[in-house]
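Reviewers of the previous submission asked for a worked example of the structure-prediction workflow described in the proposal, so we include one complete record here. The input consisted solely of the amino acid sequence. No template or homolog information was supplied to the procedure at any stage.
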Amino acid sequence: MIAIISAGIAPGLAILSYFYLKDQYDSEPFYMVFRSFVIGALLVFPIMFIQYVLEAEGAIPSSLVNAFLSSGLLEEFFKWFILFVTIYPHVHFDEHYDGIVYGVSLSLGFATLENILYLLANGLDFAIGRALLPVSSHALFGVIMGYYLGKGKFSSLSDKKKWILFSLAIPVLLHGLYDYILISHELWPFYMVPFMFFLWWFALHKAKKARILKQPV
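From that input alone, the workflow returned the following structure tokens.
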């Protein structure tokens, strides 16, 4: 049990530490980052319940709908909504990179609890694969979401709506594509490897831009 919980937590904490320590100018308060992580973990339960109801009611007619609606839209919308309501207006969100810190924290809270539950049900044999795919992909979706939320907060009034829309739409699209590759292609590793390389490159590129575009209030 302890080994499974440790294996479930370790990749999320490692990735979160990386992005948190990259905050060069004014690190976010630990309690705020921890709170976002916990809220992300708690989101697992309502999302799992909604996904169960959708499946039980036959509302998922195809793998495409499953990937983009039940996984992509549902999971990313809940994460985006929490970030937009609780973090976006907060006084500590005072520079562009902060959106990435909170986006990663909330996403990894979700991914970490989901990972622990999966390993408890299926065993430690899946720990490495889970760390490389679901945990890291959730983190990268959080980076991208947080980047565009930061763009929205520190852009002119005329551009705010565009960036805020991007902060939801792009993670939904990428998450849906990730799930569609997993559930729809028998040879999914051949598609997933280049997709994950692209996702890492895209997210790290956005994180670098956010550090350069430091815009304190």
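The two ends are 46 Å apart (CA to CA). We consider this example representative of the routine output the project will generate in years two and three.
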